[in-house]
Structure formats: C-alpha cells, structure tokens
Amino acid sequence: MSPTDLEEVRKAKAEWEKQLGAPRPGRFTTLSDMEVPLLSTPADLADSDFDYLRDLGFPGEYPYTRGVQRNMYRGKLWTMRQFAGFATAEETNARFKMLLQHGQTGLSTAFDMPTLMGYDADSPRSKGEIGKCGVAVSSLQDMERLYDGIPLGEVTTSMTINGPAIVLLAMYLAVAEKQGVPRENVRGTLQNDILKEYIAQKEWLFPVKPAVELVVDTIEYGSKYYPKWNTVSISGYHIREAGATAVQELAFTLADGLAYIDACIARGMSVDEFAPRLSFFFDVHNDFFEEVAKFRAARRLWARLMKDRYKAQDPRSWMLRTHAQTAGVSLTAQQPHNNIVRVAVQALAAVMGGTNSLHTNSMDETLSLPTDESVMIALRTQQIIAEESGVANIADPFGGSYFMESLTNRVERDAIDYIRRIDEMGGMVKAIERGFPQSEIANSAYHFQRQLEAKEKVTVGVNKYRIDEPKRIQTLTINREVERQQIQRLQALKSSRPAATHTAALQNVRESAQSGKNMVGPIIEAVKAYATLQEVCDTLRGVYGEYRETGSF
Amino acid sequence: MSSTDTNPNQKIRVLVAKPGLDGHDRGAKVIARALRDAGFEVVYTGLHQTPEMVVSAAVQEDVQVVAVSLLSGAHNALVPEILDGLKKAGLNDALVLVGGIIPDDDIVELKKLGVHEVFTPGAALQDIVDHIQKYAPVRN
Lengths: 553, 140
What we know:
The complex is a heterodimer. By secondary structure, chain A is an alpha/beta fold. Chain A has 24 helices and 10 strands.
C-alpha cells in the first residue's frame, strides 16, 4: 500500500473507533499479559516495517517463518508422539506397543525421578519415587526390556533425560547395536538439555560447566557416528511450565541453544557439522494467537541468528525443527473433562504454528499418570485435527494476517531484547550462575498467580464456574510392588554380573573424565558390562562434583 | 511502630519444604512468596531434601508450620517420615500442610497420620494464608 492509502486507512479507522461501544471491564491481554489491539489494519504492519520476502518468504525457505517443510503437512503430517513411561520397563513396553498399534508414529520415553537424577532403584534417595513419574531404568537390562520387540531401526524414539542423558544414550545405542540396527538407521531424539534444568526443571547432577561439556560430548559423538540422531532437544517446555511468559520461554530457549553452539565451537567443531541435528521443544499454552506467533517467531529468529551470528552455510543449520506439547500446567483437577477441550485448542495452535511433532496431554494428567483411555482420547484429538478439520491442507494459514504478523514481530523483538541482556551477562551459563532466568520466571509465575487470585485471569472451573464435584474420574496408580520388584531385579543383576569387567569399565570412565576425553565411548563400554546408572553417575560425580542450588524464592 | 510490627502474622514462622527428588518448585516458590507477603516469616529449604533434612530445618528454625510441596507421587513414602521425625524432635504441635498432586484417597490417609490440611492444584493463596492464621500453634 502506498503512504497515501495507509493514511486513508488510518483516518477511516479513527472514524470507526469513534463509534465503538464501551468494552467489558478489565484489560485485554494475552496469557503472558501483552496488551492486544481490538483490530489490526495494514497500517500496523507498515509501522513495523513489514517486508514479505524478507520476513516471511516461503515454507521450506529462509527465514522459515511459514514452516520448515516446503509442502508442510501435505507432504507429511506432524509426528504424533505421546510421551509414555511408568512403573517397570515391561509395563511401559506394553504401553508403547499399544500406542504404535493405534497409529502413533514415534515413541517418547518418560523416566522416573531416580533415573532423572542418576540414582538406582536401591538407593535410599529413590524411596517412594520408583516408577511414579516415568519408567525406572537402572541398568542396560532395564533398557533391553523397555524396547523389547520394538525394532529400533524402524521407529523414532525420543528420551526425556538430561542430567544423566549420556548414560541413557549409551544404553539405547547398546540396545540398538544388539538388535543389529545399522548406525545410520538409529533415529530419535535425546532431550539432553541440561541448561534448562538449572533454569526450570531442576533435575541436575553436576555443576554447570562439566555438564555442558558432557552435552558437547554427545553432540560430537552423535554427529560423527549417528547421522540421524537428534543430539539435543533444546527445550522451552519446562521453562514455560515453571511460569515463564511466552517471550521468556522463547528467549531463554534460544539462548540455551546459543550456549551449546558456543561450547561446540570452542571444542573445535564447525557449526554446520552439528547444528542440523539440534532440535527444539516448546510448550503450547492456552492463548491461541500468542502461541502461533511464538512458533513463527522462533523459526525466524533462530534462522537469523544461525545465519548472521554463526555464518552457518547449510540450510539445515538454519531450520528450527520442533516438537510441541500441550501445557500440563493449564490442566485442572476440577472438572477434568474440560481438559480435553483445552488440549484440543492448544493442539490446534501448535499445528497452526507449524510444529513438526506433537504430544497432546491427557485429561487426567493433573491427577496422576494417564490411563489408557485418556491417552487414547488425546491421540484421537490429534487425528481429528489432522484428518477431519481440514487445517492440514494449508501451510501457515495465518501468514499475512495484520494481527498475526504484528504479534509475531513483537514476540521476536521482545525475545531479541532478552537475548541481548543475556549476551551482555556473558552468555547463558553466566546468566544461570547469576540466577537471572530463574528469578525472571519466578516473578512471572507469581504475577500470574496474583492475576488469578484477582480474577483478572480466568481458569474455568477453578476461579470461575466452580461446581461441587462428586468423586473424581478413574486414575492410574502405581503399586508399591513395583518398587520391591525393581530393587530385587537390580540386586540380582549386581550379584550375577562378572565383577572384574564392570569395575575395569568404571575405572576407565573415571580416568577418561579426569583427562577430559569424550565420554560416550567409555560409558557405552561400562553399560555393556552392566555397570548401573548410579555407578556410572557416582563415578562422574566423584570427578566433577555435584550441583547445589540455594533455596531462594 | 511500623506496619509490620502490628501485623498479626509476624510471629508465625513457616518452613516451605521440597522433599524427594521432585524438581517442580513453581508452586513452592509462589506459596513462599505469598506467605511472606502476608507477613509470615518464611524459610524455604530448596530442592531435593531428605525427610531428615526437612525435620532438621524445622527444628533449627523453630517453625510453627511445615508446608510440604510434592508433585512426584512420593508423598505416601516421604510425608509419614517427616511427621515421625517432627514428633521425635519434639515439634509435636507443628502444623503440617501438604500441597501438590495428591489423589483423594491419599488425602484421607495423610490426614489420619497427622497432616492438618492438603491443598491441591487450584487452591487459592488466601485460603492457605487463612488456614495458617487460624490453626498455627502459638509460640513465644
């Protein structure tokens, strides 16, 4: 539009505004508390210096605002990947097989708290936690049972593990090798994002610096030997769930990514060697437009950072490929069936935002781990969006919307501001050591809770439209028997394995860690000798020390 | 006299505790801030505490209230140990509250063991503040 035309639009809008009725009381803001306009016009886009080819382009082309696949969901639907893991390896294995049989296209493994913290089932620290929030894996034997009968050359597997990620990766690669899967066919994703643990999820083992070096080890090893393995899933999910705004989620996640890139470059790798195998994982929350804008801004900002800051040449280094999960924190224990609707709205936003893979939460996840029935509804929600609603026919349907483009610009701009502040602190590792992202998130969480209490924000069934409810829905409970069984099995393994092999392998792990070698190879040898998860982690703790956080709030 | 001196909550000391391996600390931190803003004296243990560590912090700080946050499903194993420990340490009168994802049946059991109230997701901060004001034991 010409400047004169835009002036006409502005004038006409001003006229139109004179006749607006009184709005409902209160402010009109996104979930993250950004003010939004009632109406956007071409003038808003012109004000933000919008340029179609520069800012949007085409799907599959730089800067990927409109998606990373050229023909988007016409070529291939997003991967429907439901996160699962509970009790023993056998029970989770059965859930995996059920999901695959019902049309799921990728596996995603949840581990229990002891596994996430690098403790075996028989540690006193594990008491009461075994098999509760995920599956218990203390040794290669458990990993063999977990993927028993599942051809690892044909499925893609995602593993949500961070502190001891290198050990679980070693176990997975050992199982794949035993199944005879060629290295180039091993496909999947290791979460392996330790920085967001210090920021938000808080399941850590070692101090920040050696922990980042272990991540670099896996990236280096993966890039060399497992070309189709996604070495790190740089995750905003937990940052958002801990209370961050959409902009903070985006900014802190990308800043984590930049920190890994810097660490890999410091190791001597070139950016195009490893960046194509980095992937992302974002939350998708209740505010529909804000979420769509976040995904679009994420792809564009990452592409620009990769090209401008790191001079990456390979287009695959520019592409932000992402998994998404609906917001666990948005689910309510009250009137839990309402959660099905929340999940559907969130899932639709993720698809409108062009996600590559999606987990939809089950309605009962705020009460316990999900039952088979509720997991099925969650999977069917994705299938209805994909195959009934028609939305998968079109790439980036919001592209060109005056409002969506203005919002995408704003989210990107605000995220850049945060990244600049983190750069000024010396990067994300330094920012974490100062507690910067941690306190920003705690402030946002508290602000939001205050808004809920004041009813400035509404949660249906919780601070509005409450009812007296009878007994709640059927939930899944984990038997204490699981704990006994898991400990017994582990002790049987410890007494039956040949002592000399695993002791020597652990000795090699210690010496390699002390001399700063890449740790993947030595750890694979140790787990193959049936050294347990905790034995390997304790050996590394002995070399690196342990991370402690001060209890500030 | 400053306004804090006249605040009736000023003398009430609260320990916000995160036992177990669970890293979900959003709720614990929000509660800790809300209680502080309501005028209580609040101590937060930080993450990954054993039941013994929680008890010893409660004793050291001589708190009237122990607010335990748990979202990992380990409450049935860890909360009874905290209750026992508090008794053995002589803090018999401490008001023990639990917050987090706690199934209905477990709430009944925990209350039988001596937990005074369980607050599940969606509980209002003001209700928690009111509860503490009403039931916290008086100490000098």
